Amino acid sequence: AAILLVLLLIGDPRAKPKPGLLILLGVLLGLGYLTKGTVYPVTAVAGSVLIWRYWRDWTAFIKALLFVGLPALTLGLLWWGRNMAVYGGFDILGKATHDTVVVGQPRTSEWIAQMGLASTLQSFVQTTFNSFWGQFGWMTVPMTYPGWLYPLLWFFTGLVLAGFVVETARKRKSQIPRMHWFILAGLLLLTLGVHVVYNLTFVQHQGRYLFPALVPIGFGVAVGLGLWIRPLRKRWPWAVYFIPTGLAIALILLDLYALFRVILPALG
Question: What's the pTM?
């Protein structure tokens, strides 16, 4: 979230980025390299933002690239060097070693051979969706009771997705800078792409891999929900506040239900 916030500030055409902000982006990226591989797609978004921001001034672009790249690479090299020393060669992420030593993890090709492509794709979509909202205990404890919970979440997702599509398709000037749209959409698409590509080899239908894109997803929900709330403003102005507040309370109740009715009983 911190990286995304800095990128949005850099991508704001109304203000010129200061060197300190660029250095902060580099430090955050470097810390991300030390923390989780899901941060790496953000690098492509950051690079695109810098190119867009400075494409008319290559001298300024090179300076900005150094401000961002030096701290990011310095921190990243600590981890990459360690991985090369441990795993050998240029396996800086340990992925090649992981792929050779993993035992018993199902592969997508095996699932397609056993169940067919359609069933594998259905499992990918369904399990990714379910586990995004809540599927615990190494994916063995879904929230299957009550039986209407996941369908209700599907309905909510479809509702806000339809609202988002209609709202963004309308031909009216947005107050949000175009680059901000690009940053949010780029992060979402790259995160989804990494999830899909990884599942081409191994069966890892886990919605947690989409969590790096929670901010763009949340933004999309706000836009999509706003389409349905806006017509109520004149007749029921209270609905503008009641519906988002009610949604927040519903999500808190879902968390409590998952903890006390799903997770804790499964532990016992």
Answer: 0.84
